[in-house]
């Protein structure tokens, strides 16, 4: 049986607007973040996209986004949280290391500063989303998570060059996947706010 996952990045936050590193630390949604999340909810209604289950990261920016998109009851799941950037949390994005195009991420850079490595985040996201989709009643699922965590999850399923060419992961972007035999297949990205 093929199932469907709609995986959404949370709405814009104060730290996004201020260009601050935001992983495990949290900040509130901006008015733009609120308005954009509502637009996604309208898109789903207008296109008759209905969910049987919903999940969000335990971080407030994700659960607040979910509540603006749907009034479906949902579960908060720690495995969906954002990458932990350690001592870089709350600092200027200008302090981020350079992206390594050979590995397609920042690798283990943040581990030395008390954060997580890219592989650790990727494995956590793959395990968590696989467990969610394996639930017998979960056929059309809505999940709200975070940019870094979603990127690393996607990177597990499609080549880096395809991500660079075809996927824009803005705040409130929604990635649609099909799920069958424990494999996620990326279908498309829904961007209704850009």
From TrEMBL:
InterPro entries in the record: His_Pase_superF_clade-1, His_PPase_superfam, PG/BPGM_mutase_AS, PGM_Phosphatase
PROSITE patterns: PG_MUTASE
Coiled-coil ranges from the UniProt annotation: none
Gene3D superfamilies recorded: Phosphoglycerate mutase-like
GO cellular-component term (any): cytoplasm
GO function term, MF aspect, one: phosphatase activity
Annotated binding of substrate, by residue: 9-16, 61
SUPFAM superfamilies the UniProt entry points to: Phosphoglycerate mutase-like
Residues making up the signal peptide according to the UniProt record: none
CDD domains listed in its UniProt record: HP_PGM_like
Pfam families from the UniProt entry: His_Phos_1 (PF00300)
Protein name stated in the entry: Histidine phosphatase family protein
